[in-house]
Amino acid sequence: MNNNSIFKSQPNFRDLGGVHTKSGQKVKENSIFRSSFLGKMDENELFILKDLNVGEILDLRTSQEIDLIGKGDYPESINYQNIPLNAGNITKSLIPIFTKGEFHLLDSNILEQIYFDLITKFTTELASIYREILNANNGIIYHCSHGKDRTGIISALLLDFFEVDRKHIYSDYLMSNEFLKKSNDYQLQMIKDNFSKQFNREVSEEEFAPVKSLFYVHEGILKNIFEYIDKTHGSVRNYFQSELGLNEEEIELLKSKYLE
């Protein structure tokens, strides 16, 4: 699987392909890409995007997130589509907590709840996303704001559907922590500095731990998601059929299209 160095301004961009499945097949490269928000690309990066033969961009952010920083400026050849996954929109509730330094109000289970909401309450949206991937004529990119949670669960389920070993899926999932570290450190320091100005003291590590946790992905949460799907559906393939409503033909086409 490719690393994230192709776009300097997009720390969490990467190719989902290049990895082998348990049966020895390979997920096609340069076909499915995952990313953080793509809105700050320079001319050279836009040229690279075109060179990748990307035909579609799926934006998983909410309208509030898009209003805040825009939808991005892409070549006319690329079809932009917004399929909002509202379960990930915690920005509105978090901003006042961060600005007021009321870190004790943070729910320690908020990220895990978001993940479970995504796979149980947003099945219509998930089905639409996977069908867009299935029907893409050229390369397709899907992204949320940071490319770690909503994008992360979409990627993890798809790789498991392709029967990629879960050890590799966890590894790919955790790459977001490495790729986002620089930007996370910057944002976390800003929150710390704001706290210090308000309360004339440094925030303790214990106080700040719930904040820091939100900026990173956690293997345990993804494991719990897989355990839940295994227990309730038997496999991600069955989940795609019984919960998302993909039929047998779509299931087989999705595999044949992206496995070689």
TrEMBL record:
Amino acid composition bias (Polar residues), ranges on this chain: 1-12
InterPro entries (UniProt xref): Prot-tyrosine_phosphatase-like, Tyr/Ser_Pase_IphP-type, Tyr_Pase_dom
Pfam families, alphabetized: Y_phosphatase3 (PF13350)
Domain (Tyrosine specific protein phosphatases) ranges: 120-159
Gene Ontology molecular function terms on file: phosphoprotein phosphatase activity
Coiled-coil residue spans: none
PROSITE patterns reported in the protein's UniProt record: TYR_PHOSPHATASE_2
Family as reported in the entry's similarity comment: Belongs to the protein-tyrosine phosphatase family.
Protein known as: Protein-tyrosine-phosphatase
Organism of this sequence: Bizionia arctica
